[in-house]
Automatic annotation (TrEMBL):
Belongs to the binding-protein-dependent transport system permease family. It comes from Paenibacillus vortex V453. It is found in: Cell membrane. Keywords: Cell membrane, Membrane, Transmembrane, Transmembrane helix, Transport. This is Binding-protein-dependent transport systems inner membrane component.
């Protein structure tokens, strides 16, 4: 290809190259840039080493999903069984019960918990009083920094027969006698969803508030001159400028539909609500760590990871179509 064919007109009398640089030239430029910025580049070396040791080397352990591995075996000495562990998964009733629970809780969190941080961020942003805004932000962030051990203990106390919720319901005449709400399996999905929203909604507003802080104020001033109401300004200015970060959070949320909160489940699950509380992560934990069936637990985890990657790619494709073919990943 000639140099003339490798350029195109920009409409202003100038030309720009359209072809990619040769691989050798790109490699040479990479090492030149690395040498020029070696102080900064060397700062990532510990992170790269950490990822290699704890993220890439353990991938070899996934081979036990295709083996009959026991604690007396090594990764190499365990006998191969092919896809037998995956065949057992397909006929395991308890696994599919955990899938139903995981999807039920995850879809509730997606339907409710995804929207609430956006609404809360807009409400905080619209507050004019600086001290009150900081107070609301602090209160909403606080539950995120408490572990599920602490929050779970609080919920167990509040939901007990002599706890806060029963006292409130009795005083309002909504119930005639107290009951332990956490022992009722039919209410667990809502408890898991609402408690997770309570813990993470405030923390989820940080990215949205950062994006809104960068919006040019002249947009709002022009909208006011045109007579736009505050709600119209939010709809036509605030939300469109948040479109990319909303899409990114949606992609990450959809890709994690099969990964429910293990800490929350282990704290709130009991023998009475297990049928509705057991999720895939807790099922894998129970099969692997409690019952010692490491091969089966690894097979379940591997299958879930593959489906999560498929969900991630699919969600990215869908959101890119909605964003004029602009991918956020």
């Amino acid at each position: 290809m000639s140099k003339t064919a490798a350029v195109q007109s920009t409409g202003t009398g100038t030309v720009q190259p359209t072809g990619k640089k040769p691989m050798g030239q790109r490699i040479k430029e990479f090492f030149i840039d690395f040498r020029r910025q070696w102080e900064l580049q060397s700062m990532i070396i510990p992170g790269v080493i950490f990822m290699f040791i704890f993220c890439y080397i353990p991938i070899y352990g996934l081979t036990i999903a295709f083996k009959n591995y026991t604690v007396i075996d090594t990764l190499d000495s365990a006998p191969w069984v092919g896809f037998d562990n995956f065949k057992i998964i397909l006929s395991d009733k308890y696994f599919w019960d955990s899938v139903v629970n995981t999807l039920g809780i995850s879809f509730l969190k997606l339907a409710i918990g995804f929207v609430i941080p956006i609404i809360l961020a807009i409400m905080i942003y619209e507050v004019g009083m600086g001290r009150f805004k900081k107070f609301v932000q602090t209160i909403s962030y606080l539950p995120h920094f408490l572990s599920w051990i602490v929050l779970g203990g609080m919920l167990i106390t509040w939901f007990s027969t002599s706890g806060l919720f029963n006292e409130i319901l009795l005083s309002l005449g909504l119930i005639s006698q107290p009951q332990n709400i956490l022992l009722d399996p039919s209410k667990y999905w809502w408890i898991a969803t609402l408690s997770d929203i309570w813990k993470e909604a405030g923390w989820g507003t940080i990215l949205y508030l950062a994006i809104m802080a960068k919006i040019d104020p002249t947009y709002y001033e022009a909208a006011k001159i045109d007579g736009a109401s505050r709600l119209r300004q939010i709809w036509n200015i605030t939300l469109p400028n948040m479109k990319m970060i909303i899409s990114l959070n949606l992609i990450l949320t959809v890709s994690g539909l099969l990964g429910s909160n293990l800490d929350q489940t282990l704290v709130l699950m009991n023998s009475q609500n297990r049928e509705k509380a057991e999720v895939i992560n807790s099922y894998v934990y129970r099969m692997g760590m409690t019952q010692g069936d490491f091969s089966y637990a690894t097979a379940v985890g591997l299958g879930v990871s593959i489906i999560s990657v498929i969900l991630l790619v699919t969600a990215n494709k869908v959101t890119s179509k909605l964003n004029d073919n602009q991918s956020v990943l």
